[in-house]
Design brief:
Layout lengths: L5 H5 L5 E2 H6 L4 H9 L3 E5 L2 E4 H4 L4 H15 L3 E3 L1 H7 L12 E5 L12 E5 L7 E4 L2 E4 L1 H11 L2 H13 L5 H10 L6 H10 L7 H12 L6 E7 L5 E9 L4 E5 L2 H5 L8 H20 L3 E5 L9 H13 L8 E4 L5 E3 L28
Parallel strand pairs: 5-6, 11-12
Antiparallel strand pairs: 1-3, 2-3, 4-5, 7-8, 9-10, 9-13, 10-11, 13-14
Length: 364
């Protein structure tokens, strides 16, 4: 029996549908032989990948590769929601990527619990669809709003902030898509997310921390504020600032520090970095601010760790004793502390219902 060369599988898209293999002249018998010899991985019914390629992909790369095959396998569908966000290069929500999300007009398709695709029924105006690397996908505007509607606030906000920061969309465009989704599930959370979105936030953790803090009942912080001494000397640019409380928030994810060592680990540089961070925190505290630090683990279980960090800092803070100047990085003008803008207000109709006194009910 003639054995199919390994190169034949590598010439196919990865992963590939059995019908794509047939179109390339490879029979079902050849596919079965490739699986038997360990050259192919069976990902699902009629879905395969060359083992040597598939094993090298990260979770995000594997999901975006699956998105191409998923869209091809469901006639009239478009990659959407989280899957579209990944194709657009936007942040991946925390946790497993899950099934590939597709949207199809007037779909009545039902998915088995182990299906690698999730098909949703939804309107798809022509201006809501674009093409990324040859794959039909919802536009960035539509993708962001879909994610805000269907994901946890922390993850949807991270996707919205990243899209705004990259210049891939603007708030007005998100609001326009949202108006077209009147009555759809999750639009209230989408409205809240749009009102909170800020392209100045620089990481998933910063954005997710804001979403989690607001869901826990904390005010909306200012983002990326430069703090200076009264003589104008620069102290530091802070991730988040709760000015009314006198609290600085520093979202310290691992990537914030590992990015300093892209080439190789250097103990001297690491020590210098830690000393620099310690001195910076002391300077912030010396002008009257209290610093709260947390990592991504603080957002687990509804944000209990973040709540602890913010409460501890707020107990130390004395907002009326803060003595410093500040600068909005986008404008670059030094201002007195009393000239800080008030915390952004969440429209009353978006506030969670049945709130505890002084606290908002978590939005999950």
């Amino acid at each position: 029996m003639r054995t199919t060369p390994v190169d034949a599988w590598l010439r196919l898209p990865q992963p590939f549908l059995s019908r794509e293999a047939h179109a390339a002249g490879l029979s079902s018998t050849a596919i079965a032989g490739g699986v038997r010899r360990g050259e192919l991985v069976v990902l699902s019914r009629h879905l395969y990948a060359a083992r040597s390629c598939w094993s090298r992909l990260s979770a995000t790369e594997a999901h975006t590769a699956l998105a191409r095959a998923a869209q091809l396998s469901v006639a009239g569908s478009v990659v959407s929601h989280t899957s579209a966000a990944l194709l657009h290069g936007l942040p991946r929500p925390w946790g497993p990527t899950g099934a590939v999300c597709l949207t199809a007009r007037d779909s009545t398709r039902t998915a088995a619990h182990d299906d690698w695709r999730r098909v949703l029924d939804g309107a798809l105006p022509g201006d809501h669809v674009t093409v990324v690397e040859g794959v039909p996908v919802t536009t960035v505007d539509r993708t962001v709003v879909d994610c805000l509607r269907t994901l946890r606030l922390r993850d949807g906000l991270a996707i919205a902030d990243a899209a705004l920061g990259a210049g891939a969309t603007v708030v007005r465009a998100l609001e326009r898509v949202r108006r077209q989704q009147r009555g759809w599930p999750g639009v209230r959370t989408a409205d809240l997310g749009i009102s909170l979105a800020d392209g100045r936030r620089e990481s998933w953790l910063e954005s997710a921390s804001v979403g989690t803090a607001v869901a826990l009942g904390w005010p909306v912080p200012l983002s990326q504020v430069g703090i200076h001494r009264l003589d104008g000397a620069f102290v530091g640019r802070v991730d988040l600032l709760w000015a009314d409380l006198g609290v600085v928030g520093e979202a310290d994810g691992r990537s914030k520090y590992l990015g300093q060592f892209d080439e190789a680990w250097d103990a001297e540089r690491a020590a210098a970095l830690m000393v620099r961070e310690r001195d910076r925190e002391r300077e912030l505290e010396s002008v009257g601010l209290a610093v709260a630090r947390w990592g991504s683990s603080a957002l687990r279980a509804g944000g209990g760790g973040l709540e602890v960090a913010l409460r501890a800092a707020s107990h130390r803070a004395r907002a009326d004793r803060v003595r410093c100047l500040w600068r909005d990085e986008a404008q670059g003008v030094l201002r007195e502390w009393r000239e800080l803008p008030p915390a952004p207000r969440i429209p009353r109709h978006l506030l969670p219902v049945n709130r505890h006194p002084g606290r908002q009910r978590p939005v999950w």
